[in-house]
Amino acid sequence: MKEISIASAIEKSKVASEAAYLLFVEIFVPDKATGEIIETIRIVNNTDDLTFNGARYSALQFDLDVKQEAGGLPAITLSIRDPKGVIRAYMEQYQGGVDFTVAIHAAFSSALDAPPDTSEFFMVTSASAPSYGAVFVLGAENPLSQPFPRRRMRRDYCAWRYKGAECKYQGGMPTCDYTLKGPNGCAAHGNTINFGGAPGINNSGIRYN
């Protein structure tokens, strides 16, 4: 993976080029009682739906804004245009969206089967639902507190690229939802032996490896 920050990726996505630099967002919706991921919303800031690394992303307009307060950590505001109320429905049902996990991936439109230039995970620290929209404030990672190596092990989410070297799945199912027991996850593919998560970790859901 290239060493490029999300802040740089956001700026790069605004520059017109022959091959568009796209931002892909995954929103992981947890069960209130168990903390298990029960739904993954995937969106791309594009005019058409796209398949990226084996998963389908719905075209939906959004803005990402990075702010650095004096003496504080940077924060990212994710503002999504949600005219059909799909995301707001999940917010109403699950704690208003606070504590959702959000992944941001950046990649060129000409290399949607290649690993992204960068992928970073954030926690939603506050959320609101203005008319026809959803706004998440994401807690940015502190570069001074990041562990090494940087790979995260998540209980419910596979870290491997679908049909890649670590995944090893070579069957006929075209996509995967990167869960262990989801309707389109590793169990459904008969590939649990290669699941790239860590089901044995506790409900906090993330550990570093």
Automatic annotation (TrEMBL):
Q: Which domain of life is it from?
A: Bacteria
Q: What name appears for this protein in its UniProt entry?
A: DUF1833 family protein
**What is the organism field in this record?**
Chromobacterium phragmitis
Its taxonomic path starts at:
Bacteria, Pseudomonadati, Pseudomonadota, Betaproteobacteria, Neisseriales
